[in-house]
Amino acid sequence: MLNHAIVSVALALATLPFAVQGAQLAARAQDPICEWIERAISSASNVYYPGDALYNKGVAHWATTADQVSKCVVEPGTAADVGMVLRIIGGTRTPFAVKGAGHSPNPKFASTTGVHISMYRFNNVTYDADAQTADIGTGLIWDNVYDALAPHGVNIVGGRVPGVGVAGFTLGGGYSWKTNQFGLTVDTLVAFELVRPDGKVVKVTHESDPQLFMGLKGGFNNFGIVTKFTLKTHPQPEVWGGPIQVAADQIDEVTDATVEWDATATDPKAQVMTTYTYAQGELHMTAFLFYDGPTQPAGMFDRFLAIPNHGSNVNTRPFADLVQSTPTGASYGFRGIFNAFSVLDTTRSLVDVVINETQYWGQQLSAKTGIITTYAVEPFLRSIYSHNTQQTAFPPTRSIPFLPFNIYYAWLNSTYDEEFYNAARVSTKVIVDAAVAEGQRGAADAPLYPNNAIFDTPINKVYGANIPTMRAVKRRVDPANVMGLAGGWKV
Ligand SMILES: Cc1cc2nc3c(=O)[nH]c(=O)nc-3n(C[C@H](O)[C@H](O)[C@H](O)COP(=O)(O)OP(=O)(O)OC[C@H]3O[C@@H](n4cnc5c(N)ncnc54)[C@H](O)[C@@H]3O)c2cc1C
Ligand SMILES: *[C@@H]1O[C@H](CO)[C@@H](O)[C@H](O)[C@H]1NC(C)=O
Ligand SMILES: *[C@@H]1O[C@H](CO)[C@@H](O)[C@H](O)[C@H]1NC(C)=O
Ligand SMILES: *[C@@H]1O[C@H](CO)[C@@H](O)[C@H](O)[C@H]1NC(C)=O
């Protein structure tokens, strides 16, 4: 009887388009908060529901570990509409998410089962030649920003590889090809346009509110939703550099070159990053070389250039082209996790531990649908934290010249998520313990970069001594803890 009734209803719906449409409207009506938002926002903004193409775009992330099914996607088009959404969400205590470009692989950081806010429409880039700053919207990826600034011959301190979102990158710190020269992206911030949790749109500068300005420089979504950054610009000539792919038989040479670079480099226009990757049953390395000018000073990178390689894409080129030349390993659509581990020196013995970890976990995790296991060795100059006299939420200390190394794992089957997360925790601990054991004692206390740290990293490892100040700001701008309804790093 029951089956028969269901079949009848299904047949009735199938033959009556009007009824089907009615059923879809009924499904929409299931979420009154989304409907309320839809009615309250201006025509510059939209709400999308499951089944809409722009819903799928809105809830997508770089790594599928970060995906969740939300009730609706809100694409606000004005800061005032963001404020309206926050007022409705706060008043109804609705769980929500705010997504820049969705590049954090951490589950629930930019996703929700409630109302998902995607910032795509904040996509303007405005260069102010007099002030030597650029206003950039928080829905952009760095590729767009570099393309928009290139005609002006200027650039800002931003992302190194294609596709990365400006919002999370900038709100968490920002390690760039230009960091040896200018510090982190947070060190180049002049102002924020912030939608406070009470819905008010405010401009935040050091002068207007030094503590909130400090908190936003590393504090992600703790204090509201940022709609615009004003960042310092710098003249951008053509640059020299790109990636060199090196096979396992040259591991000693590329490692010794990296270790020597770390011990001897002094030119802030130059930068090197070496990654150790296990994929398809093999270990291989990529050395990324960068010089902020059209030619490398004679001899500077000779040791890297002399290594027999199986792919080199090192050239004089526009900055945006250098960014596009950088292979990112596994790209969109895999399960993924990063973890951060900070060390103080790139010694040969420590990199040997990194290499062993790459190989060991690469092999272990291949059996669990692992497809790529990468460890990045990033020998920045020890002066990178000296480019800002103002306090920033991250890094919480500028007196430890730590290097923000990181790992990235990608895999296919969600059954193994916990095993990958656990490996990422265990492996970083092995390396930091090894650093401490070889005399890098400060490594144990060095901050962990929140854009790379795994989701359950203790908050004091990220913000350290800044936590009391950040909490005071939080109590002031968000007494009802509206932002606590969204995921991410929470003070
Ligand atoms: C391939 C790849 C390469 C990378 N390379 C680098 C690198 O070279 N240097 C580096 O420093 N980092 C790098 N990262 C890390 C990167 O900085 C982070 O993943 C960053 O969070 C990406 O920003 P997003 O806007 O895409 O983040 P999302 O995943 O969208 O958001 C991250 C967090 O920021 C919050 N957030 C987003 N937008 C807003 C907003 N408008 N207001 C308030 N809070 C907001 C979210 O709620 C979430 O908690 C890389 C990541 C990937 C995947
Ligand atoms: C982007 O710039 C255009 C043109 O100035 C403006 O109309 C629009 O409101 C801006 N969008 C945002 C989100 O600021
Ligand atoms: C390699 O790493 C694994 C896992 O951390 C460890 O058990 C093993 O002893 C290491 N091997 C060497 C030679 O260090
Ligand atoms: C994931 O792994 C589990 C356990 O081995 C298996 O049962 C399942 O079929 C796998 N899923 C996919 C999509 O391969």
TrEMBL record:
Give the range the annotation lists for the signal sequence.
1-22
Instruction: Domain (FAD-binding PCMH-type): give its ranges.
Output: 66-236
Q: Which PROSITE patterns match?
A: FAD_PCMH (PS51387)
Q: In which domain of life is the source organism classified?
A: Eukaryota
GO terms assigned for molecular function: FAD binding; oxidoreductase activity
Question: InterPro entries recorded for this chain?
Answer: FAD-bd_PCMH, FAD-bd_PCMH-like_sf, FAD-bd_PCMH_sub1, FAD-bd_PCMH_sub2, FAD-linked_Oxidoreductase, Oxid_FAD_bind_N
**Gene3D superfamilies cross-referenced by the UniProt entry:** 3.30.465.10, 3.40.462.20, Uridine Diphospho-n-acetylenolpyruvylglucosamine Reductase, domain 2
> What UniProt keywords are attached to this protein's entry?
FAD, Flavoprotein, Oxidoreductase, Signal
Family, according to the entry, reads as follows:
Belongs to the oxygen-dependent FAD-linked oxidoreductase family.
User: What is the protein name given in its UniProt record?
Assistant: FAD-binding PCMH-type domain-containing protein
Organism, scientific name? Cyclocybe aegerita (Black poplar mushroom)
